[in-house]
Amino acid sequence: MSRRTTAPAGWAEAVVVGGGAAGLSLAHWLTHTGTTSLTVVEAPDGPLRPAERTWCYWDDAPGEFEDAVLASWSRLRVRGTDGREVTTDTAPLRYRMLRSAPFEALVLSRLARYPQTRVLRATARAVRTVAGGAEVRCTTPDGRVRLLRGRYVFDSRPLRRLPPARTTLLQHFRGWFVRTAGACFDPEVADLMDFRVPQPRHGLAFGYVLPLAPDRALVEYTEFSRAPLATAAYETALRHYTGEVLRLGALTVEAAEQGVIPMTDARFPRRIGPAVFRVGAAGGATRPATGYTFAAVQRQSRAIAAALRDGGDLAPRLHGRRALAMDAVLLRALDTGRIDGPGFFTDLFRRVPTARLLRFLDGATTPWEEFGIGLRTPVGPMLRTAAELPFLPRRPVAGVHATAPSEESRR
Question: Is-contact 23 40, C-beta < 8 A?
Answer without folding.
Answer: yes
